[in-house]
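Narrative of accomplishments. A recurring question from our advisory board has been how the design workflow behaves on a single, concrete structure rather than in aggregate. To address it, we present the structure tokens for one chain from the evaluation set, followed by the sequence designed for it. No filtering or post-editing was applied between the two.
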């Protein structure tokens, strides 16, 4: 059944990729397109150049117009979506017509679908069986996590791969089938990445701090700044003549960078800060709790997003009102009366109270004005006090964040985790 053109058999030194996501639910804002971002990251790590990401509707006209524009102009088109068993999913039939094929049953795909239903104790209906029909001009990619197979076409020196839009079906198909096939067919230039995770310094200030180091980077090494609230990722990419000894070059440059900004580095290779602090707590045999006012439980959400966090996370108390700060958290009402809820004195008492109430070895506490209302000239919107504690040590710091409410909450949460990281590494006084 597989008809593969010889147009892509030659080895290429550079490969361009276009990513196409299909579905009206994306275009009307009903869901967020996370597939394209995930695929782009995987392709970039392979050394491919992602030149375009586009979302289109599941209509034959739009699909064919997009293919007309891309075929012959890009080496690889990765498509997701529109492969379901219902009448509104038109991608398979459209691709069959476009590439001049005939829908036939692929026995391997049918066996995979049959096993899928047998494992779940469900019987197949006709629409499920029709999922095993694929164009006879493509290579079918069995789907071990669903019923819609992927399809691999080739024309005009372009590979077109159509995959399901459901992320947990698409991702294994990319990693287990598409990427190995690409590696076997194409000579992809070697690219090696290392990401240095930095905390508590804005992108512009960070660039100034490391400008001398950056200016001395080898010509075959590229630096990219990837900021998010409270964090800047520094991605080093090695290519070309340096690739053969990439790790040696990266180790050398990372060591030089640590000499300049070591206090701001908390991890590597896109490790989220909540995972890093979890590793530290587990390594030290410590537990942690949170007392959150302005962050409303967001720090606890981040901590518990890490698998295995039950080993070190005790719990949280969202002390949004002053009544909850005083009882059950145990903050002295006189402190609130004298200094206000958003103050060093109160947030430190919250951190101590969380450790006592929840029986943890360490804690984080926040109190601030996330906005958009509630600010004063003395205590404006964006003012946040954060305290971290471990044993008898307590450290607090005032921050003045900009941006909207969600941004203040996100920045506060990241800063709190980062402060605890520093406290546990004895990089803070107190």
């Amino acid at each position: 059944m597989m008809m593969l053109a010889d147009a892509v058999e030659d080895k290429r030194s550079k490969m361009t990729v276009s990513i196409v996501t299909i579905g009206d639910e994306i275009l009307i804002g009903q869901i967020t397109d996370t597939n394209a971002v995930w695929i782009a990251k995987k392709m970039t790590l392979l050394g491919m150049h992602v030149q375009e990401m586009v979302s289109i509707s599941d209509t034959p006209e739009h699909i064919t117009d997009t293919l007309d524009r891309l075929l012959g102009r890009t080496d690889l088109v990765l498509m997701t979506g529109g492969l379901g068993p219902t009448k509104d999913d038109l991608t398979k039939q459209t691709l069959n017509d476009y590439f001049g094929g005939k829908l036939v049953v692929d026995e391997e795909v049918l066996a995979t679908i049959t096993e899928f239903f047998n494992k779940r104790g469900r019987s197949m209906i006709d629409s499920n069986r029709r999922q095993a029909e694929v164009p006879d001009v493509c290579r079918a990619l069995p789907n071990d996590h669903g019923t819609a197979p992927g399809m691999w076409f080739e024309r005009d020196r372009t590979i077109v791969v159509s995959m399901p839009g459901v992320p947990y079906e698409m991702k294994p198909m990319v990693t287990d089938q598409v990427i190995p096939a690409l590696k076997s067919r194409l000579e992809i230039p070697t690219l090696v990445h290392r990401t240095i995770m930095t905390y508590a310094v804005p992108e512009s200030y960070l660039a100034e701090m490391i400008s001398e180091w950056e200016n001395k980077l080898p010509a075959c090494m590229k630096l990219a700044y990837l900021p998010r609230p409270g964090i800047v990722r520094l991605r080093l990419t090695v290519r070309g003549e340096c690739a053969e000894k990439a790790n040696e070059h990266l180790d050398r440059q990372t060591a030089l960078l640590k000499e300049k900004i070591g206090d701001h580095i908390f991890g590597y290779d896109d490790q989220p800060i909540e995972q890093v602090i979890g590793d530290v707590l587990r390594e030290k045999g410590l537990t942690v709790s949170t007392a959150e006012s302005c962050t409303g439980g967001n720090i606890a959400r981040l901590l518990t997003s890490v698998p295995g966090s039950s080993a070190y996370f005790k719990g949280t108390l969202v002390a949004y009102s002053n009544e909850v700060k005083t009882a059950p958290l145990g903050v002295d009402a006189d402190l609130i009366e004298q200094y206000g809820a958003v103050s060093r004195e109160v947030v430190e008492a919250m951190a101590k109270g969380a450790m006592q109430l929840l029986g943890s070895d360490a804690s984080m506490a926040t109190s601030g004005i996330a906005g958009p209302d509630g600010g004063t000239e003395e205590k404006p919107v964006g003012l946040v006090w954060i305290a971290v504690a471990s044993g008898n040590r307590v450290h607090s710091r005032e921050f003045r964040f900009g941006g909207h409410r969600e941004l203040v909450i996100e920045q506060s949460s990241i800063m709190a985790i980062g402060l605890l990281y520093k406290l546990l590494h004895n990089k803070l006084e107190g």
